[in-house]
Amino acid sequence: MKFLLARRDFRTLFLALTVSMLAESVLVLALGIWVKDLTGSDGLAGATFLALSAPMLVAPLAGWVVDRVPRRAVFIALNLLTAVLLLPLLIVRQASDLWIIYAVAAGYGLSYIVLSATVNALVPELVPADLLPDANSALQTVKQALRLIGPLIGAGLFSVLGGARLAAVCAVCFLLASVGGMLLAGRKVADQSSRPPERLTWASEVSAGVRYLAREPALRKVALCSALSMIGLGVGESLYFAYVDQGLGRDAAFLGVLVSAQGVGGIAGGIASARVVRRLGEVGAVAVGIALFALGSLALVHPTLWLALPASVLIGMGLPVSMVGMNTLLQSRTPADLLGRTAVALDTLVSGPQALAIGLGALLVGVVDYRLLFGATGVAMVFVAGSLWLSRRLAPPATPVARIESDSNSSPKARR
Known about the structure:
Elements: H1 2-5, H2 8-39, H3 42-53, H4 59-68, H5 71-85, H6 98-126, H7 132-161, H8 163-182, H9 202-206, H10 208-215, H11 217-237, H12 240-247, H13 255-299, H14 305-333, H15 339-364, H16 370-390, E1 404-405, E2 413-414
Antiparallel strand pairs: 1-2
């Protein structure tokens, strides 16, 4: 970590992303609470999350933009536009203003998609290939930490400041992230304005990331297995209320304890993920992450407190380990001029089915015992993890990297 933070550009990006991710973790929950406060409707509050995810339909266009505009410029503009996007929330006062919250939520959802692809494409421009696992690990660790404390901060600030003032605070955070982007050197590894020698239609260029993902063996395998694991994770998320109520015999508020345990596991997984990638390779790391999901799901089949907390920690650990492995594989196997589109295609394939799986789980838990569903999910993910583990030769571990010396302006030199 110290070698990364010694590099001025990565340190700047790290701080800028920390500020913007804090605003994100606060904002997402606060919008739903705000709608509930204005209308008293759980359904309308839940629709906020639908508005946030709706822009996934235009995700391929986001990848095309990231590959056709310098990534530093996209990062700056995106954070600046997000800050401006939040300003209409300052005039929300009553239920008739609900459409403003939904419109802002949809706009922010699109901003999040583009930002995710931009960061995936920008990181390889700021750090050498042998430090990609460490860079992704650092960012995932912060993300998991904010996932743990962000909702608490958001709920607390909303109760103290109200929705409009909280939106103003988040806008300032995005503005600061934009300023951080201006301090980046803006180096790039390839000419992003170049075009393939053959003549391509606009539709072909937009879909190029999907086609590359389909023909690259390691990425294709990881994408498929990760999508299946996210389906299992989505189904599992719908079972927690039944698990806490019927299994543990506790109030629904106890779910917050399990979520906190997942957050602790997420931080631990984020810290350890770079080492896992170096030892097992990117594909092996994703397999380990999915295996942790599987073990956690199987442990929840027997509802008891002494298994509930460790199982939640295991599930929390699985996400950053698999994400760091997947992102590092994406960055190391994808040409620079395709990275934005491929990143969006991968994110859509992996994250999209999870939302549908949450709905499926909510339907199934009404007719099937939640323990059977946890067991079936866990067994299915064991097979997915096993299949991916057997394919780890597609991306074997890299040669161990020696200690790296770095300063703020020079490339690191490995001591042989």
